[in-house]
Amino acid sequence: MKNKVKQKLKQGKAVMGAIVTVNDPLTLHVMANAGFDYLLVDTQHAVIGTDTLFSIIKGLNPTESEVIVRVIWNDRALINQALDFGADGVIVPFTNTADEVEQAITAAKYPPRGIRSWGPRYTDRYGKTPDEYWENANDQTLVFPQIETVQAMENLDSILQVDGVDGIMIGPNDLGMSFGMNPGIGKKETEPIFQQVLDKCKEYNVPWGMFTVTLEIAEQWFKKGGQIGVVGGDFGWVAQGAEDTLKEVNSLLKNINR
To answer: Per residue in 245-254, is it b (16+ CB within 10 Å) or e — as a string?
Structure first.
């Protein structure tokens, strides 16, 4: 089995994903069967422990969507764990130098490229036998460093030249804050910063993407050459659905009770 996200990115195509933060079977079922290219399990900003992470990944693995885990930190053990549980790739936050990106990639790859420990008991996406998995895992596993600081911007040329970078993710809120701006995706003042990342990624022929939240923002950056989109997720959609419904309810009650 091939990693469809990796294949599409190599072909110059765009991919779209959504964020998963809850371990609810029905929610996972709905999101997994919606048809996204990938689902992003966010352990960095959600209450997801080891057991929960395993349950979520196993709930998503049988579907067509790839599973990408945003780990809490650039830590070998966390990256190993996510991949051993069956993730198809990792997003690694706050990667600020080429050495830190190299650290993330070596954690995700088996020797000779990396130092990932052997123990894929729960993974069969890229091989039914240990030999098959060994032959395919390094080529199919995705690693997306996340750019979200001034330091990372200063080191972007060297970061983009590290062998094994499958794509760059912009962390728009943290990157904006690092430059002294208020958080908030879609603000005009942060666009020149994001454009710098875009231009550098084009120069080195590295796919790039961003947490865009809305389709409007995603379209804006896709038209500029972005390939990796994130357009919301379970928590935000429930909150927005509740808010929209309440507005309709209040409007109805206002008409009834006048």
So the answer is: eeeeeeeeee
Q: Is the pTM of this model over 0.85?
A: yes
**Residue 10 Cα distances to 94, 117, 184, 208, 227, angstroms:** 24, 27, 30, 12, 10
Tally the domains of the chain: 1
Q: Is 122 helix (H, G, I), strand (E, B) or coil?
A: coil
Catalytic residue selected from 2, 10, 29, 45: 45
- pLDDT of residue 149 exceeding 90, the answer is yes
29 is catalytic: no
Half-sphere exposure of 218 (CA within 13 A, CB side): 16
Domain of 147? 4-256
**Domain containing 111 — which CATH number?**
3.20.20.60
List pLDDT tens digits, range 18-50. 999 999 888 988 998 999 999 999 999 999 999
Q: Which residue matches tokens 């069969």? A: 124
Tell whether the model's pLDDT for residue 72 goes beyond 90: yes
